[in-house]
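Forgive a beginner's question, but might I ask you for the amino acids of a protein and the tokens describing how it folds?
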Amino acid sequence: MNEDRIKGQWKQLQGKLKARWGKLTDDDLKVAEGGSEYLAGKLQERYGIAKDEAMKQLKEFDESGR
């Protein structure tokens, strides 16, 4: 994910992230503040997927234009 772009649009993205990954909490998103590494870790924790799969999903989310 493009960290600068994500951080700049973070408030708008939070709702879209929760719509895509409903198990993420408001606290998760608040702490993440656009950091893809933290988000990947939370996806890994909440969904029981490997970190590389979480990063892949985040990349696809970013590339799809959300």
In short: Residues 51-63 form the longest helix (13 residues). The mean pLDDT is 87.
